[in-house]
Amino acid sequence: MFSNRITQLFNIEFPIIQAGMIWASGWRLASAVSNAGGLGLIGAGSMYPPVLREHIQKCKAATDKPFGVNLPLLYPSIQEHIDIIIEEKVPIVFTSAGNPKAWTSHLKHKGITVVHVVSSSLFAQKAEAAGCDAVVAEGFEAGGHNGREETTTLVLIPAVKKAVQIPVIAAGGIATGRQMLAAMVLGAEAVQIGSRFVCTPEASSHLAFKEAVLQAKEGDTMLSMKKTVPVRLLKNEFFETIKAAEQNGASAEELQNLLGRGRAKKGMFEGDLQEGELEIGQVSALINNIIPAGDIVKEIWNDFIAALQQPLL
């Protein structure tokens, strides 16, 4: 039986956490990962408050294991989301995209375990000072919103590990047990995985998007929108439009207008592969099948154990 600070903190079997991705991480995916022994997260960033409540309630009905909610702190209805999380007695919250000081003490006062996603050792120290129980150190390879520093996971994990005393969860470019082992050798006590769980039947993202991820090769994603909120995208017509605007010196306001409302929903949820925003990580180049989330948890763990037992030479 594997045990460390993260498995004890969340009361889970394996130190494998499914990222709370917008338009992908609903109750079906979160409960499937939790039932398999990892920690499933509901992605609140694409949910109106009543929808979040529905997903929490359905997740509670689908699993008796711990699960959590990923909560972007810049979300307009943050107060409503916080209230629902407390009312529904969600045990774990992962916060991102904002200052952890804003809500950490309030959540912890309600008995909730709080983890914050960071892209640098400085932000990790701020999260620790705010009272977070752990941090997710997310490297440049990750899909979705990313740090401007462009620090890779290989550099970020040991830097954050050195900077804080609380447990470090590695994220960005991880989809296999061997990559998990590498992250843990560098000082992480768990991994958070997003892109690999997109390609599951339980993910709520559109099948066309999942199939586009399967076709992705090295170099098919790129960090974009650095004047606004940096985001890693799969290259398509929308990406090329953004890229051309950036090269022509477009302002942050002009880029935001190009992005518009509902662009991510159009791409990842509705399956518009040309005009939609397609958020996915670099590790998509290693993903080649759609299998159940529970099988992915087992596959990653078995691969991790096999790699751990294999001689280096």
Provide the fold topology.
Layout: H1 5-10, E1 16-18, H2 27-35, E2 40-43, H3 49-62, E3 67-72, H4 78-87, E4 92-96, H5 104-109, E5 113-118, H6 121-129, E6 134-138, E7 144-145, H7 153-163, E8 168-171, H8 177-185, E9 190-193, H9 195-198, H10 207-215, E10 221-224, E11 231-234, H11 237-247, H12 252-259, H13 263-269, H14 293-309
Parallel strand pairs: 1-9, 2-3, 3-4, 4-5, 5-6, 6-8, 8-9
Antiparallel strand pairs: 7-11, 10-11
Summarize the model shown.
The chain is of the alpha/beta class and 313 residues long.
Describe the protein in words.
The chain is 42% helix and 15% strand. With 313 residues, it is an alpha/beta fold. The protein folds into 2 domains: 5-204 and 285-309, TIM Barrel (Alpha-Beta Barrel), CATH 3.20.20.70; 207-283, no CATH class. Strands 1-9-8-6-5-4-3-2 form an 8-stranded parallel sheet. Strand 10 and strand 11 form a beta hairpin. Helix 2 (27-35) runs parallel beside helix 3, helix 8 (177-185) packs across helix 14 (293-309) and helix 11 (237-247) packs antiparallel against helix 12. The radius of gyration is 18 Å and the shape is globular. The two termini are 27 Å apart.
